[in-house]
Amino acid sequence: MTDTPDSPYTPEDVVRQDGVGVPDPFMRLWTPHRMAYIEGENKPTSDEAGAGCPFCRLPGLTDVDALIVHRGAAAYAVLNLYPYNPGHLMVVPYRHVADYTELTEAEVADVSTLTRQAMQAIRTVSGAHGFNIGMNQGEIAGAGIAAHLHQHVVPRWAGDTNFMPAIAHTKVLPQLLPDTRALLAKSWP
C-alpha cells in the first residue's frame, strides 16, 4: 500500500492513527475512490433526460472515454464505474426511460441481444463461470440511477467471494477499466 498523491499520509501514519483500534498485524486496504460513489458524485440531481443523466450523456462521448464496449441499435453496453467484479457492465437503452414496461419491443430485443453478447464476450475474455444479470427498478429497489433503466451483467467465478470481501470488505479488481473495455470490445461477437 502506498500513499495517494492527494494524501500527505503514509500507510504507517494510518496504522498509528488514533481511533483505528488496537494495533494488530493487519495492514488495512483503503478504497478512497469508492467515496465518489458513496457521496453521489455524477449522480443526477433530477429525473430529467439530458446532460445531467450520465446514461444520456455517455453515448455522446467516444467509446474509450465513455467506457462503452458496444453500441447497438436501441441500447449500448458500458462498463460500470463501480464494478462488483472485473468485467461488470451494464446494458442501457439510449432512450431515457425508467421502467422496463415502458421499453418498446425493439428496445427489449436490443437489451436482450446485447446481454447475450455481453455474456459471450466476457466468457471469451475471462472464462466467467456464471453471471448475475438483473436490473433494480426504482430507487427503493436499489437503483443508483433510477430514472434511466440499466441492466447489470456481473460475471462470477467459483471462489470469487474470497477472504477479501468477506473479511476486509474490499473487492480486488486486477485490471484498469480502459483495459477491460478494450478486451471486451475486441471480443464482442
TrEMBL record:
<feature type="short sequence motif" description="Histidine triad motif">
    <location>
        <begin position="148"/>
        <end position="152"/>
    </location>
</feature>
<dbReference type="InterPro" id="IPR039383">
    <property type="entry name" value="FHIT"/>
</dbReference>
<feature type="domain" description="HIT">
    <location>
        <begin position="54"/>
        <end position="163"/>
    </location>
</feature>
<protein>
    <submittedName>
        <fullName>HIT domain-containing protein</fullName>
    </submittedName>
</protein>
<feature type="binding site">
    <location>
        <position position="80"/>
    </location>
    <ligand>
        <name>substrate</name>
    </ligand>
</feature>
<dbReference type="Pfam" id="PF01230">
    <property type="entry name" value="HIT"/>
</dbReference>
<feature type="region of interest" description="Disordered">
    <location>
        <begin position="1"/>
        <end position="20"/>
    </location>
</feature>
<dbReference type="InterPro" id="IPR036265">
    <property type="entry name" value="HIT-like_sf"/>
</dbReference>
<feature type="active site" description="Tele-AMP-histidine intermediate">
    <location>
        <position position="150"/>
    </location>
</feature>
<feature type="binding site">
    <location>
        <position position="152"/>
    </location>
    <ligand>
        <name>substrate</name>
    </ligand>
</feature>
<dbReference type="InterPro" id="IPR052908">
    <property type="entry name" value="AP-4-A_phosphorylase"/>
</dbReference>
<dbReference type="GO" id="GO:0003824">
    <property type="term" value="F:catalytic activity"/>
</dbReference>
<dbReference type="GO" id="GO:0000166">
    <property type="term" value="F:nucleotide binding"/>
</dbReference>
<dbReference type="InterPro" id="IPR011146">
    <property type="entry name" value="HIT-like"/>
</dbReference>
<keyword id="KW-0547">Nucleotide-binding</keyword>
